[in-house]
C-alpha cells in the first residue's frame, strides 16, 4: 500500500460555496502514484467546511448559501461567541453541520466522483482568509 500526503493553501474567497475540485486535481497532478484507493480532503479551519455536491449549476451553490443563512442567522442575541464579528459563531455552526473532510474514491489514478459531483469549499466568513487543506491518499 502507498500513502501520499500534501498540504495546499487555497486563495481567499468570498463568503459562499466554491467548487475546488479542479484546483485540488491540478495541485495533486499524477505525483501521488495511487491507481486504486481513497482520498481524504481535510480543511484545517473551524469556520469553513467541505462537502460534495452539484458541480454544474451555480444556482445550487447560491441556494446552499441562502439555506444556511436562513437556518443559522447572524446577530442572534443568544450567541456568546462573537469576538470576531456577527458571522463568527454562525460560521462555526455551519462548519459543524457540514464537516471538515470529504472522502473520494480513486479509480485508475483519478477521483471517481459522479458525473455531477464536485468538492465545495464552504466559506462561512465574510473575510475568512486563505484556507489550508491536507490531502491524504492511500491505496495501490
UniProtKB/TrEMBL annotation:
InterPro entries: UPF0047_YjbQ-like, YjbQ-like_sf. Gene3D superfamilies: YjbQ-like. Belongs to the UPF0047 family. This is YjbQ family protein. It comes from Dyadobacter sandarakinus.
Amino acid at each position: 500500500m502507498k500513502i501520499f500526503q500534501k498540504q495546499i493553501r487555497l486563495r481567499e474567497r468570498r463568503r459562499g460555496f466554491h467548487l475546488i475540485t479542479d484546483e485540488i486535481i491540478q495541485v495533486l497532478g499524477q505525483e501521488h502514484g495511487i491507481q486504486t484507493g481513497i482520498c481524504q480532503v481535510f480543511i484545517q479551519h473551524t469556520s469553513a467546511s467541505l462537502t460534495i455536491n452539484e458541480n454544474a449549476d451555480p444556482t445550487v451553490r447560491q441556494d446552499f448559501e441562502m439555506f444556511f443563512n436562513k437556518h443559522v442567522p447572524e446577530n442572534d442575541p443568544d450567541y456568546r461567541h462573537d469576538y470576531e464579528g456577527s458571522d463568527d459563531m454562525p460560521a462555526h455552526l455551519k462548519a459543524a453541520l457540514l464537516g471538515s473532510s470529504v472522502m473520494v474514491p480513486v479509480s485508475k489514478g483519478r477521483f471517481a466522483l459522479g458525473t455531477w459531483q464536485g468538492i465545495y469549499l464552504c466559506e462561512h466568513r465574510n473575510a475568512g482568509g486563505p484556507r489550508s487543506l491536507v490531502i491524504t491518499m492511500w491505496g495501490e
